[in-house]
């Protein structure tokens, strides 16, 4: 009989089977034996440490690697100053200037850290660089201020404007080329450069989203667009979804992802990064206290990512192949061939659903995986559990071998009782330091 497919993404909705895909993603296999396999996400490899953590920002600028660890600012391995606060630092750079924003203040960062004076003593919430100028969002306001050309510290008293198509406060600034997207609490406006020195930016008429931003640090540039956690106002509620920029904002989240967002006690604390891997880009979103979800921009599929012993993936900022820990002083790199996170187990989970009209006895399950999972002399293990009651009553995990190195493995389980309508939901997981790449499931296959 043909192999049953494995779930292609994390999914959950009342009345439907709940699928899981944790620390894995879908790899298309047009040459067979099925149309896709499940691959492990890249593992974490320890690089170096800075300060005492957590890592709040990483950026390569003018040939130096700048890292904010706790309140300490490093240029390569040398501390050059301090920044207050505990949340992620907002960053913008030109060819020769780097600006950081933390706890309401803007700083010019280089061989030292110096506060940038904002006219009228306004507090700053964000910064961007576009069309030769630094743009500063004011806290608790729709107003933004801008610098003179190529001079982050030179902000004239009259160098300001207001994102005013809707009276909401600015949450974040994101640039696409020379355009600046001004994300408010309820709306998003597009602004672009002009030739008018007195008004160097103008709002594009007709380019406004009736969707705001729920989390400043959720916006990430991926594949010539921006993905972010947005808020849409309804007559009776505010909806949280993940959007991507376009002629209109495109919803890319699923009901399962929306449910995760709604479970977060404070969604404004969500953070996101881009993780490139083998020709694809992942939008990796940490939802505090809930989980981390990853959107595969090529396949347009979602999965969950997690670090051992934590609710979420342990990374909160990234730059040029280096990733910052959201709790410790550790800087990491990612390796597609690594099957652990710095030696900690990477628990990979996938699921399948076997529908049935009537009861039938499950004599045997076989999980098919790619060849050569373990190192020489090892026999990796995989666990299975199942439920016939919408995941309310799981069986105990049952562990079996995938077979020795070099053998095309089939993990087998026998005598699993009667499956009941409407069907059986099955989960598989592997935590060994081995390649784990399942591609199909056989039920009661005759030999």
Task: Provide a descriptive summary of the structure in words.
- The protein is mainly beta.
- The chain has 2 domains: 21-41 and 348-443, Galactose-binding domain-like (Jelly Rolls, Sandwich); 43-344, 7 Propeller (Methylamine Dehydrogenase, Chain H).
- The chain is built from 1 helix and 43 strands.
- It has a 5-stranded antiparallel sheet, with no helix packed on it. Strands 21, 22, 23, 24 and 25 form a 5-stranded antiparallel sheet that branches. Strands 4-32-31-30 form a 4-stranded antiparallel sheet, with no helix packed on it.
- A hairpin with a 2-residue loop joins strand 33 and strand 34.
- The radius of gyration is 25 Å and the shape is elongated.
Summarize the structure.
By secondary structure, the chain is mainly β. Helices cover 2% and strands 50% of the residues.
Principal-axes shape call: elongated
**What is the domain tally?**
2
What is the overall number of helices?
Answer: 1
Mean pLDDT: 91
CATH architecture of the largest domain: 7 Propeller
C-alpha Rg (nearest Å): 25 Å
Q: What summary fits the major beta sheet?
A: 5 strands, antiparallel
Structural class based on helices, strands and sheet pairing = mainly beta
CATH class categorisation of the largest domain: Mainly Beta
Biggest sheet strand line-up: 1-35-42-38-39
Strand content: over 45%
SS elements, strand count: 43
């Amino acid at each position: 009989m043909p192999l049953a497919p494995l779930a292609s993404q994390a999914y959950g909705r009342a009345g439907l089977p709940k699928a899981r895909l944790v620390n894995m993603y879908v790899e298309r296999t047009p040459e067979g034996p099925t149309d896709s396999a499940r691959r492990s996400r890249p593992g974490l490899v320890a690089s170096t440490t800075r300060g005492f953590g957590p890592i709040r920002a990483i950026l390569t600028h003018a040939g130096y690697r700048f890292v904010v660890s706790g309140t300490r600012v490093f240029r390569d391995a040398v501390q050059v100053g301090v920044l207050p606060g505990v949340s992620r630092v907002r960053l913008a750079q030109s060819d020769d200037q780097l600006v950081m924003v933390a706890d309401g203040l803007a700083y010019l960062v280089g061989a030292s850290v110096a506060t940038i004076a904002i006219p009228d003593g306004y507090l700053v919430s964000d910064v961007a660089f576009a069309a030769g100028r630094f743009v500063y969002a004011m806290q608790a306001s729709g107003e933004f201020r801008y610098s003179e050309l190529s001079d982050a510290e030179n902000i004239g008293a009259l160098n300001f404007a207001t994102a005013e198509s809707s009276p909401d406060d600015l949450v974040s600034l994101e640039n696409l080329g020379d355009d600046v997207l001004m994300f408010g609490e309820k709306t998003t406006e597009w602004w672009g450069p002009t030739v008018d020195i007195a008004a160097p930016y103008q709002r594009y008429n007709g380019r406004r989203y009736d969707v705001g931003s729920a989390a400043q640090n959720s916006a990430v540039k991926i594949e010539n667009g921006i993905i972010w956690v947005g808020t849409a106002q309804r007559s009776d509620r505010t909806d949280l979804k993940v959007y991507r920029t376009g002629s209109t904002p495109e919803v890319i989240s699923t009901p399962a992802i929306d449910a995760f967002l709604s479970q977060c006690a404070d969604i404004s604390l969500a953070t996101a990064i881009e993780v490139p891997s083998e020709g694809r880009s992942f939008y990796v979103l940490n939802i505090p206290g809930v989980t981390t979800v990853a959107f595969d921009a090529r396949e347009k599929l979602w999965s969950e990512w997690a670090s051992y012993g934590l609710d979420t993936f342990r990374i909160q900022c990234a730059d040029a192949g280096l990733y910052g820990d959201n709790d410790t002083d550790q800087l990491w790199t990612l390796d597609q061939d690594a099957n652990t996170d710095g030696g900690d187990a990477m628990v990979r989970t996938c699921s399948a659903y076997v529908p049935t009209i009537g009861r039938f006895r499950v004599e045997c399950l076989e999980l098919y995986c790619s060849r050569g999972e373990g190192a020489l002399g090892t026999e990796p293990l995989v666990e299975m559990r199942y439920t016939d009651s919408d995941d309310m009553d799981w069986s105990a995990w049952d562990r079996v071998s995938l077979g020795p190195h070099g053998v095309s493995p089939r993990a087998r389980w026998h005598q699993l009782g009667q499956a009941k309508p409407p069907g059986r939901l099955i989960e598989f997981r592997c935590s060994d330091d081995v390649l784990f790449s399942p591609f199909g499931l056989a039920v009661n296959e005759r030999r």
